[in-house]
Structures are given as structure tokens and as C-alpha cells.
Specification:
alpha/beta, 513 residues, 2 domains, UDP-N-acetylmuramoyl-L-alanine:D-glutamate ligase, elongated, nine-stranded mixed beta sheet, Rossmann fold
């Protein structure tokens, strides 16, 4: 790959120190440090100026874990930022700094000159800059400030129109984790035959299509002509259908009413070859959410539901199913419509057999519920709003927010969904493994984003269980979500659709378009 031509420039601080030797040196060493989230003209001028002061230029890059100045940042992961700088002729070495400040690297490398931007001395030295200056001068080095010039902002450039770096970030992640596209293909094929058991609320999503005839002159009443209606099995039901489409053997335990919509659910799931374990509750209707569309616009949604907590009898039957249904993966798909509540969750969780792979998805941001009620699970997949809801935190930027949720949930893997911005995965890490990594959205043309999280949940759960690899699970889950975004309606994602995504991005990675 082309990136390989520059990797030799990316070193540790200790490796650079050994190469350049200790001061005093005949050939001066210059060092800069920064985030370099997007390398822009201001960065180039700064680096060229710094290089002009010595024989070699070392650039320190702030590690992802210490970039906290804005939400959803860094936009470019540390490995790719390092390679972007290494590709510049003016840069001789790049070091990804694992520390919050560059002081330790300064004292290890001992550059003759440490170059800072003009803005860092304007109006007096910032305390952190003063600490850096003290470190440099402690061994006889010197801090130089670049001449005053236009100060460009990576943040402003990113926020005005984020560039599409999905391919580059994917390559960087796979390379950094010693994975490749063949690994993705094998992982996708390997989920066939896995046994999955889904417990959750069934929702029948209806789409009533109309066209506007006119409006009343006296009241705010719109007159529409009925043109048709389509029903889809949604909620936890579509999660079950995604799992089945992926190749798993699926049992779906849920609560239905005694009505015609329940018959529709049975017929639909039978056609999809999902084994349905339905508990009938004659006191409540099968949940229906009917969106009224007028001339292509969603004008109104009519929900028919009863959000009361399930009875002790119904809860007991679901606990029996959790204990008795053989499964490799158990998924709690919580839409907070009665099955999962303060009383039932401890009982349902306690019924899970020892050693069962446990997954929870809690789509409850608009109702009372909390993903933290599923502590100790192998995988949880909330979106950003649900994460903030669970922690009561609307202010913290996304990476520290995810880290806190991961720690409080005591889960093994957290996949934090961020909509059009992709996702961020947090995991138990040791050795050289990173504790978190980001993945951009792989959707090329969004038709209907609703339900993409259900596709991600299904595919990521199966891959994580069968491979034990959060990286492969996250990428394949994200690609399944992208495939769902490109479909109109709640349509189960087939493995062929995900494979097509993998092959598309493999071609793009190899400059095949």
C-alpha cells in the first residue's frame, strides 16, 4: 500500500532519541507538536519554517485519547494523522505522543529547538507553553515562535464541511489492528448457523400513503386522499429478521395482543423462518405505529400501544424462555413498551444461563429507561442521545462520554452509534490495543436511516460472538447499517449486501473507484 512508503518515519520517542543522539549536536534537531487533525496551509507554513531552523524535523502528534477540545474529535484518528505528516517531505520523523503534554517527549528527544506557533506567545505565555519552555531550556534547548501570520483552524474547516475520509480511516484501522478485507469476508461468512434468541417488544410499523386534496378555510384541517398502506414488523421483530437474514437460527420471544396485527406478525415471521415464541396478553394491543404520509411528507404518526409493565405471569413465561431456549447469543431489544421495566429487568437478567453471550440495545431516549440497567453485558449499542440520557450528561464531548458509559456499564464492548458521523467502539484493552476507535458511516446514498441501528445490532452481535473481535464486529455492523440506510423501509439486510459493501470499500482502498 502507498502508506507503507512513509511508515518508517513514524517512531517512538526512544527510537528517535537513539537515532539523533544526545546534544550537543553538530546538526540541529527541531521539534514541533500539535493535534494536526486536518493538515492545512497554516500547518504547512509552520512546519516549513520549523524545518528551516535545523537539519531534521520531528513532529509530535497528540494521541486521540487526549484530544478533547471539541465534540466528535479528533476527526482523523492518530495513526492516519501521523501518516499524513510523514508523507510531507519537510518532516523527518513523527511520534504519536501517548501523554497529555509533550514534555516527556521533549525530555526524551531533547530537540535543539522546539517551535511553537505565533499565537502561543500573543498576549503572554500560556501556562502550558511556559512548562514546555522550562523543559526545553532545562537541557540547553531553545523555544522558537513562528512569525505572526494567518492562524488557520482545523475545527473551523471540519465543522464547515467534514471531508469524507471513510476509506482512509478504514484502511488505517485495519492496518493498525493487523486485519484486512479477507478477514472481514471470513467473519461475515462465519456467522451462518449461530443460534440467537431475541427478547423484546414487537412493533408493527405502518405507512399510510396519501395525497393532499386541499385544506379547510375555517379550521387547520388538511383533506387527503388515501392511496395505500404498508405494514412492516419492526421493533425487536426486525432485529430477529436481520439475524435470520444473516444466517443465524433465530428464536424471538415477545408479547402480542389478541388481534389481527398479531396474526400479521406470526405470518410475517413464519415467512422469514424466525421461530416465534409469543406470549399473548389480551389486556393490551399489539403495538402499532402508523405514519401518515401526505405527498411524500410525514404529516402525523398515530401510535396504538399500552406501555404498562408486563404482568408477573408474562414475565415468568419470558424468564422460562430465556432459560430453556438454546442460544449462542441472547439479545435484549428494549423499546420500553412494557417488557423491560424496573421490576422485570433484574428477573429477566437473572434468568440468563451462565456463560451465555449477552447483548442489550435500549432505544429509550424519548421514554424512561436506561442502558445502564443492563450492566455487565458483553455488548451494548446505544446511540449518543441514549448515552447522554443514561448519564444525565448533555455537555461532555463524545469520547470522554463514551469512556464514562463504558466504565459505568461494566460491559466488555460498547458500540456508541453517532448517526451520520458513524460510531465509536470502546473495549477492554491491554498491551498495544487501543481502548477505543472510530468508524465513519459507509452509507453512500441514504434513502431511509430508520432501522439502521437494528441491522448494526444484529450483525455486530453475531460477528463479536463468533470471532471475539470488536474491530471486525464494528466494521461489519457499520456496513450492515449502511446497507439498511440505502433501503426503503424495514427490510432485513442480507449478507450479500454487506459483502458488496466490503468489496466496494476494498476497491476504493486499492484506488479501484
Amino acid at each position: 500500500m502507498i502508506d507503507d512508503a512513509y511508515k518508517h518515519k513514524v517512531k517512538t520517542a526512544a527510537e528517535i532519541a537513539e537515532i539523533i543522539g544526545k546534544p550537543p549536536r553538530r546538526r540541529k534537531i527541531v521539534m514541533c507538536h500539535g493535534t494536526f487533525d486536518l493538515v492545512h496551509p497554516g500547518h504547512i507554513r509552520h512546519l516549513v519554517y520549523a524545518r528551516s531552523k535545523g537539519a531534521k524535523l520531528v513532529v509530535g502528534v497528540t494521541a486521540d485519547t487526549h484530544v478533547k477540545k471539541a465534540d466528535h474529535r479528533p476527526f482523523v484518528p492518530e495513526g492516519l494523522r501521523a501518516l499524513n505528516l510523514a508523507a510531507l517531505e519537510t518532516v523527518d520523523y513523527v511520534v504519536i505522543d501517548p501523554n497529555a503534554t509533550p514534555i516527556e517527549n521533549i525530555l526524551t528527544i531533547k530537540p535543539d529547538y522546539f517551535v511553537k506557533g505565533y499565537e502561543y506567545q500573543k498576549g503572554g505565555l500560556h501556562p502550558r507553553t511556559a512548562e514546555e519552555k522550562e523543559a526545553v531550556e532545562s537541557y540547553g534547548g531553545e523555544v522558537i515562535f513562528t512569525p505572526g501570520d494567518i492562524v488557520y483552524s482545523s475545527s473551523a474547516i471540519i465543522e464547515s464541511g467534514p471531508p469524507d475520509l471513510a476509506v482512509e480511516k478504514l484502511i488505517n484501522l485495519l492496518d493498525g489492528e493487523n486485519r484486512n478485507f479477507d478477514d472481514l469476508k471470513r467473519a461475515l461468512a462465519g456467522v451462518a448457523g449461530a443460534k440467537a434468541h431475541v427478547i423484546g417488544d414487537t412493533i408493527v410499523d405502518s405507512l399510510t400513503v396519501t395525497s393532499v386534496i386541499g385544506a379547510s378555510g375555517k379550521t387547520p384541517t388538511i383533506s387527503v386522499r388515501y392511496e395505500g398502506k404498508r405494514d412492516y414488523v419492526g421493533g425487536a421483530g426486525i432485529v430477529a429478521k436481520h439475524l435470520k437474514a444473516a444466517g443465524a437460527e433465530v428464536t424471538f420471544s415477545t408479547v402480542l395482543g389478541d388481534d389481527l396485527l398479531a396474526d400479521f406478525v406470526r405470518e410475517d415471521l413464519a415467512e422469514a423462518k424466525v421461530t416465534l415464541n409469543d406470549v399473548i396478553d389480551r389486556t393490551r394491543p399489539t403495538i402499532n405505529k402508523n405514519a401518515i404520509v401526505a405527498d411524500g411528507y410525514r404529516m402525523l404518526k398515530i401510535d396504538t400501544l399500552d406501555n404498562r409493565a408486563i404482568s408477573e405471569q408474562v414475565c415468568r413465561k419470558l424468564c422460562e424462555a430465556i432459560r430453556d431456549v438454546p442460544a449462542d447469543v441472547l439479545l435484549f431489544s428494549d423499546f420500553r413498551h412494557g417488557i423491560f421495566n424496573r421490576e422485570s429487568i433484574p428477573l429477566l437478567t437473572a434468568a440468563i444461563p451462565e456463560g451465555r453471550f449477552k447483548v442489550a440495545d435500549s432505544q429509550v431516549a424519548s421514554r424512561w429507561g436506561n442502558i445502564l440497567e443492563f450492566r455487565g453485558f458483553d455488548l451494548i449499542t446505544p446511540n449518543e442521545k441514549e448515552a447522554r440520557f443514561s448519564l444525565g450528561d448533555q455537555d461532555t464531548v463524545i469520547r470522554p462520554l463514551g469512556t464514562r458509559l463504558f466504565e459505568e456499564a461494566r460491559c466488555k464492548v460498547l458500540m456508541l452509534k453517532m448517526g451520520a458521523r458513524g460510531m465509536m467502539t470502546f473495549r477492554e484493552a491491554g498491551g498495544d490495543l487501543r481502548s477505543f476507535f472510530g468508524i465513519d458511516s459507509f452509507a453512500d446514498h441514504v434513502v431511509d436511516a430508520v432501522g439502521s441501528g437494528d441491522a448494526l445490532l444484529a450483525y455486530a452481535s453475531l460477528v463479536l460472538k463468533t470471532t471475539g473481535d470488536p474491530v471486525l464486529a464494528s466494521i461489519i455492523g457499520a456496513m450492515a447499517a449502511a446497507a439498511e440506510c440505502e433501503l426503503d423501509g424495514n427490510i432485513p439486510v442480507e449478507p450479500a449486501m454487506v459483502l458488496k459493501k466490503i468489496e466496494t470499500y476494498e476497491r476504493r482502498a486499492n484506488f479501484g473507484g
